[in-house]
C-alpha cells in the first residue's frame, strides 16, 4: 500500500489553491491548507475535510512557526505547493505605486523563497520531496499594466530552476505550473464582463479562460511519481496563449 503523503498547499482558502488541495485530497493524500485569510481558511478546511493553519508567507517567523507545528504533528512534509500570491494593483512602469510592487515582491517572490527554504530543509533531511510553485505565463508574455506581477512570476520560475538543481542530489524535485487567466473568485468580476472576457479569450487559441479544474491536475501530476523524471520545468497551462 502506498504511504499517504503529507501535502501543504498555501493560499488555499479559495480559488486555485482550494482546487489544488481538493485534487490532492481526492487521491487520498493528507492535505494541510494555509492562508492569510483565517475566516475563509477555516470554512474551506471544514468544507473539504482537511487541516489548516493561518499563515502569512511574507513573514519568516510565521512560516517557521507553522512549518514547525506541521513537522511536529506529522514528522515530515512530502509535497509543498507554493500557490499563495497577489497582484495588488495595476499600473504601467511610469505610473505604478512602488508600494504595490514591493508588496507583490514580498509575497510572490520572497514568500515563495522562504517557504521553499523552510520546507526544503525538512525534505533534505528526509531525502525526498516535491515542490510545485504556481507561476504564470505572464512571466514570459507581457500584458500592459501587469508588469510588476509578471516580474514576480518570472522570478518564481527562476526560483523553481534553482531549487530543482540545488535539491536534486537529495531526491527532491521542484517544478512550476504557469497558468494563463483562470476563473476564480478573484477574477469573477472580470469574467462576468462579456466584453472583457471576449477580449481575453481572443488571445487564447482554445478560446477559453481556464477553470480551476483544468489547472489543478497539473500541480498534482508534477508532484506525483508519474513525473519522477521531471524537475526544473515551468509547465504552461494556458490554452495555447503563449503561442500567440
From TrEMBL:
Keywords: Oxidoreductase. Signal peptide: none annotated. This is NAD(P)-dependent dehydrogenase (Short-subunit alcohol dehydrogenase family). The keyword Cell inner membrane does not apply. It holds the Pfam family adh_short_C2. GO terms for molecular function: oxidoreductase activity. InterPro entries: NAD(P)-bd_dom_sf, SDR_fam. Belongs to the short-chain dehydrogenases/reductases (SDR) family.
